[in-house]
Amino acid sequence: MCMVRKIIGFMENGVMVFRAASHGEYRHESEAVSRLKEELFSSDMGSFEDKVRLKQDAKAIEKDVHGAWDKVKLIHG
User: Fold this and answer.
1) pLDDT tens digits for 51-72?
2) Which residues touch 29 (CB under 8 Å, ≥6 apart)?
3) Per-residue pLDDT tens for 19-28?
4) What is d(CA 14, CA 32) in angstroms, rounded to the nearest whole number?
5) Which DSSP category does 16 fall into?
């Protein structure tokens, strides 16, 4: 019975999508996608903050690489 409900739900969803497409509603976005787009493309965060974070990340990566390289040198003499 559960499988029949899933099949019916799938068919209903297909009909709704086809109906929307036939009316020209191709660009419908879910709310989650809309929120992600807003977060990614909003200009609230300045480029200065991004540059500061990038520098911090680069320094952290450099520290990790140097630490790993020192361990390799110690192991292999």
Assistant:
1) 888 999 999 999 999 999 999 9
2) 37
3) 888 888 777 7
4) 20
5) H
